[in-house]
């Protein structure tokens, strides 16, 4: 019953927001800032994309607005933790609360509806047909024709890896993330590096949000991120500090989710099916950690 | 050239680290700064290098008033600093560490080839040999020290600050470093040099400024001042007790090590068929260039890891498989080299740091007795002359030397049967160092078997009954500490040029 | 010392007032009775015994969860399973109360115990995986929270569901198992006393027992603990077991104290509140109490405003988020100049 | 005279596009109809259940005349509160209190027979396939996307299946539960999986999650059935293409019911102390027959639906309820229609 032809695109769809948000978490984590507020940033991005694309009737401007909205919230988080020196985790939690309340309020102000932006004629981001690959018999439909942000997310993985490993900013981020005092003593502008990383993180979160509201569906609805930011946090930790690892973890999480979704209706109680996507990653992590531990013992 | 005028510094927590400090440093000289632990030396240097801002006072360079407010600003003034606690990043490579913040670029990327070449060039120019591609965390402390120095020199540096650079170096390495420093001075650099070792100060410096409790207590050309006088200016009064070396108290070894082999991932930790015997009352010194296997030896002997081959016995009985907890219950004590990483916690109070491990002795029913613990700690603070706000201050509020004393007091106070002391006096002022050495000897005298690891050969020769030299994880010499044994005699063994096992 | 602590408290309160003024006053201006809005928020929760009761009702589970998180964080672990433990603890307690054939007075304690053990698994499993394999307890607990939710719902659906009820809720909790109420006119139940006692015991454990001390050593610096020969993995696991038991017990207390049946269909969020409480309390079990009461006040005040005026509760939520950030903002609460303005002595003078 | 005061306590948040929003709409209609003679208010109590009782108590202490709550979860709260405040009137939608205990003379309870409306939806879905309106290559099965596996959702499901079976006795129904009411992306993914598996038309009963099914229908080029409110209307202006995929919606007229209850209250004829179960007969549930349905469904099918409706109204057809069916029977039922 599970047809590969349908499953692969499903996996990519489910994984895309996790990859994008996971990369966002990854970038800020490398600079030593655990971005708990990623969920809220995604939500803001999702709303901004819908609103601006509806107002301008230009999906790309919507996307830009989504990215900016994520970055603006990231800047707010930065104000909280850098300027006010508030607790990082608590600020992240507060940001999520504020984003949920704020997007609902903004939606209400704009549409008179708290639940859904359906009265706004917002646009979606296009699906992309890859020129040559599209024509290959089986591979074509699997690899081509996905949302532009799906490709952007996959493409961003090497870019982030290069950013972190090959650029002066990445070097500074890694230094700051590992030992901020030492980095400061060397003259690395710790604050600027962390703020930059956080802003980049916000951009990714905004893109992840835009994918939900302008790719997956064509509207914003209350709390539509539904905990994906937290899953992205997990994906980053499971990626062991590598962009590729984060992507692999996001794909693993997305794959289990997609498979269990298409397993519904086979008589397994739905609650148990819904538990599986959360159990498989734990299992995978244990297996990995065990192998690593054994390797290190030698 | 550099003038400090009325410089004062009060830390936000109220500690007055410097008050009204004023003196000048002449261009092209090596200028030593001496003072006991917590005298304010590092603070003054941090002000000069832009890490701290003075609360009052001014600094001028070549008559120009300057006020570096960041390390970057200081670097722009030509000031580079080698920190007492390294400012290096473990997961980055040597090249990345040295060039952090000033990487050569190609487009938006770091030009790795060029960076590497620049580091090799720097290393060659200053004859400081480093592997540009090694990950920093895998390097020995001495190698890290070189990286730190290269880093300070990598920016067009005219004023070089060295905060206790020799504390972790072995004598041959120290000598090598001194030759470089003299060459640097001759090429026109001004060098500020902080050390607790008068011999080094004498060998290098033209001028010495002494600080005591945040004030300048003396400032004189080296030629015009005697060692005793410096010691007096530093400590208020001079006085080094002569040490009578302890003698083994029985023929039976307390600790026996046979064929001990450790195949660690880190080459610096590897051990190859080590044999040792330490008798009660004996201090066995371990000499060797840093990274010759000392760390591995300590790990295995403290139960932090298990050897791949060989055996360890206490009183003739094997302790195979015993972990740190089990060994401590048998009477192990260990003063670690890295005092803040392993020896204590900056966040916990002095009382908690001083009595951790022994805390189970302070129980009343299921509860601890805080009063009694604080009282004991007060006693330690008095006996070890710890400069601190009180027994409930966090360890982090102490200067490194004073923190070291608290940690030593804890380990020495546990009535050990086997004591491992690893660099016990590194970075500690003369008075405190003497005190700690006295304590080690007293413990040995009371029948404890002591293993002493130190990069300071004078210390080894002063305290040890016997000295074993490690090279590349192997014992290359085992020598009784008789009057013929000198640093010069140990040198070739340490560098692996000679073997006499 | 006391003087400085008082100054800190006064400063924190002042910050609360300023934030309320900055956010709530402009909102209040849109209303017919602006003064009423502000006073309702600030003092409304104290005006009637029932509302004070509401604060305490809300604070009770927050204390349990905050305490659990504080103990776990102190041991250097970052286990977020408190959320799932609270949920599963509630479910386990209700299940036990429904199933166990025990006489009246024994039913509640037995059910709570069973619930605590069952619920703690959400914290214990990540703890074991961490201790045994070094797998990140952050990730596994985050995941297991959801797994616990869905598995719990399955159990509820298959074994505990009351078919006579028109929703997925359990049978009614037997009256014998319900916790006695303490104060007439409120729903304050005996659970609050247990929560206070738990926080007190938690403080005693952490600061006055060998085990607690060892836990703090391991949390402050694991390699120091290893140097002392302490079993860091075991200490971490112990804290996670303890935290899991406390959180799950809190879930059971919540059920037996305030609910008629188990009716959660999603994670209730008390665990997240617990993280907030623990951070506000700087991981100090005794400070968990005021932190939980503070959050309870924030909630009740916000609800009162949203209920009685034409101010959307999202606006109140925004202000609450801002308050959370500002009361932990070191730049404000630790600012020496501000502290001095509130009567603190400068630390230098104190020496 | 003093205006009558009515408050609606939402045990969740507005914006669910389901009965909370519809209830709020009903409140607006009351206000619009009675103007200054009433004072209305909607209070969101959030999802923390421990706050609900406190809020009901507050409202009861206040000077409200009529207090409205909905969903089964509120029943237990009304049981506790209503007897304490006998001079208040309580309206409970979609829940009941034990009236036989005699303590609830001030409570009016009303439940919806969503199974009856769903029965019609089932006929429509199966009928569109059976009469060839839906191309054969779309697949032969119909879909159901529920928010959670809970009785009120299954009440829709049971009626839906029965209705479909009345057209095609061996109809296959793909059933999925999302486990969430606000995850549109997940709803879309579940619906896409159903459409991939040969579902031609799906019925969503999952709040905001369910709207994902409409996006899936648009992407897969299949049909969908909405719930509670007219989901075609939701997207008619902003996304006509998606709106065109909504064959119809099963209405649950909470707004109408609330307005009617208040009318009765003002007239003094509100049947307090008892429960009313309202369905097709009372026009409280039903299908949207304008819009797409008008053009899409062929006349015989429309006639068939009308006949079924008449049968239910006159009692010649009874539809099973998802509330009373046992878990085992439910499982058997679901197994029997699995594609
Ligand atoms: N950041 C700080 N905050 C508070 N007090 C500090 C800080 N840094 C240093 N101190 C205190 O200031 C005093 C001077 O410290 P400093 O490090 O300058 O001494 P030092 O002369 O370098 O000592 P050592 O020989 O141990 O290196 C000490 O009492 C120390 O505890
Ligand atoms: N923020 C701080 N608050 C309190 N004390 C501090 C703080 N920062 C540093 N210290 C203490 O002040 C001391 C001075 O710091 P510094 O980095 O100069 O080391 P040091 O004293 O020279 O160390 P060493 O003992 O190796 O000589 C440190 O040992 C540290 O314990
Ligand atoms: Mg110093
Ligand atoms: Mg110092």
Automatic annotation (TrEMBL), chain A:
Pfam families: BPD_transp_2 (PF02653)
Chief site of localization: membrane
Protein name: Simple sugar transport system permease protein
Membrane topology: Multi-pass membrane protein
Compartments (UniProt record): Cell membrane
InterPro entries in the cross-refs: ABC_transp_permease
Keywords in alphabetical order: Cell membrane, Membrane, Sugar transport, Transmembrane, Transmembrane helix, Transport
Residue spans crossing the bilayer: 31-52, 59-83, 89-110, 148-164, 195-217, 229-252
TrEMBL record, chain B:
Domain ABC transporter: 2-238, 255-497
Protein name, as recorded: Simple sugar transport system ATP-binding protein
Keywords: ATP-binding, Nucleotide-binding, Sugar transport, Transport
Domain of life: Bacteria
GO molecular function: ATP binding
Annotated organism of origin: Kaistia dalseonensis
InterPro entries recorded: AAA+_ATPase, ABC_carbohydrate_import_ATPase, ABC_transporter-like_ATP-bd, P-loop_NTPase
Automatic annotation (TrEMBL), chain C:
InterPro entries: ABC_transp_permease
Membrane topology, from the record: Multi-pass membrane protein
Pfam family, one: BPD_transp_2
Subcellular location: Cell membrane
The name this protein goes by in its record: Simple sugar transport system permease protein
TM stretches of this protein: 54-73, 80-100, 106-129, 141-160, 188-207, 241-259, 315-332
The organism of origin for this protein: Kaistia dalseonensis
Alphabetically ordered keywords of this record: Cell membrane, Membrane, Sugar transport, Transmembrane, Transmembrane helix, Transport
